[in-house]
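**Discrete fold encoding**
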Amino acid sequence: MAIRRTVTKQPGGRAPVQVTMRRAEVDPTPDQALWVVIRNSAESLLFENYAAFIEPIMCGGGPPRAQGRFDHVRAKLQLPFPDVEPYRLLKVATEVFMMANCGVVIGQTEHNLDITRGTTLEHADFDRLTDHKNPAEDRLADEEQLRLLRSTTASPQVSQQWQEYLVRIGQDRTIPYLDIIRLKLGDLQIRAGRAFGARECYGILRNKLTRPCLLELIWNYWLEEGMLVQTMNAMSWRFQNRRGPHDRDPLALVEIDPLRGLNNLLWGWVQDEEHRLTIPRRTYEYDHEYGLRLIGKAVPAIRGADSRSRFLEGFHTLLMLCSIFYKEDDDTTVVADGFPVLNALRDVHLVLTQGSHNQYGDLPWTARQEFLMQQWILARPEMREFLPRRIMVDYPEPWMDSVETMKTLQGWTDTSILHFRDMAIFGEKILLSIRFGEWTSEIHQEAAANWARYWRPEVQGYTYAYRAATGADLAAVHVSGQVNATLPSVLLSQRLPQRADGARQPLRAASAQRAVTDGAQPRALPSGSQRRRADGARQRKSPAGSEPPARS
């Protein structure tokens, strides 16, 4: 710690002495540059950037950048349905947006899409952290200064740390974690381009080492728990004139005119249903990567071959240890110990990397495209007519109003979509920094301490949002040392709104969930007649609208 003594002399009196203490200097570590890359690259995929990217395309123009990729994908992607050109264009634009933001993107906003480029790891451009040419770059530099606890122009600069952190592989460079994986594959050569052959061009795909796509499926999981998918499915069912589960359908007045764009977009969305991921596909992958599951009638009994059953315990332990570290770190009379955080980071890293196989690369990519398209459709102005919103609530993204209104109309969970969105965004950044870090080889606590300080907003934001949504306080320290590792879907089911008569519906793990199904699955919400028949066996009739809200 640093102690500063200030002496101020006053006329005719004794000189008062003021003593203050501040945190000791934080030694920089090279992996701080990796966290800058991950945070900025993850934020480049935010909805506001996506909406700004595809708007000129949907208005008949070209993309702000990546024109060559757009022309290639547009010529290649065809749908076997008539009259779906607007939807096909949306699908093409979304894929090009993902391709353009795959890799390293530093400082992208909706205002500089035309000059921002997604690059390889070696060619990451950190100039926006030091140039300060406009207010956006000033805000970016200020944000990194708060996280790094030093100026972005101070030595060592982030660009210097990044070059020090990367390792050389022939003519290319990659991060240490991917280099270790490359060494495990033996003497395989690194192949460029379309090297998918089994003889002449067999080897390691270069772009997987030099330009990894920084995505986490937990982003999709929390938005699905927040009812994004169910809202879109409910609109699709009503578009097809399929009745809802209640005696009086809350969407009965949804009549979408053919004079505006939403009508044809929904037509294409419904026609393309067979080509999208189904609920079971996503659920099995949630289980494979994180040990997380959805609960509902539309979700089959999960019998996964490989489940990350230890993820929740390890991840929640890490969050709990971080809360202890922050309390110690804020106390200027002690030096916070980073070793417990380091050990927890190693445990979570091992669990995450065990799930980095099979569908890990492609399913999160596809799921992200589909969810972004759903958000954009739900954010359209036409939705305000069918899903009235609370004007005075300032949601950060326009699609969130539609989800909140749908939950109210259908009687689903009353937990705000804002908390689920926060967990999606914060959780993705945290897990990316753990997955791609070289934590199994790290033995110095300074790296873990710097990690906790850099990601403090995300860690504390995720912890609060989790408590607001599920009621479980991950920062609480129990006498037994154990953390709450109950599945979030179970906790969410236990917090469903009460029945009209004041009695809480019992939790049924197999049937208390899904609102509207995905893919070719049957309608999952129990109908009013089914509910009354079940209650009739007990000589009791439930009031209208008393069905338990579906969770997933």
Summary: The beta strands are 2-7, 17-22, 167-169, 172-174, 190-191, 204-205. The longest helix spans residues 311-330.
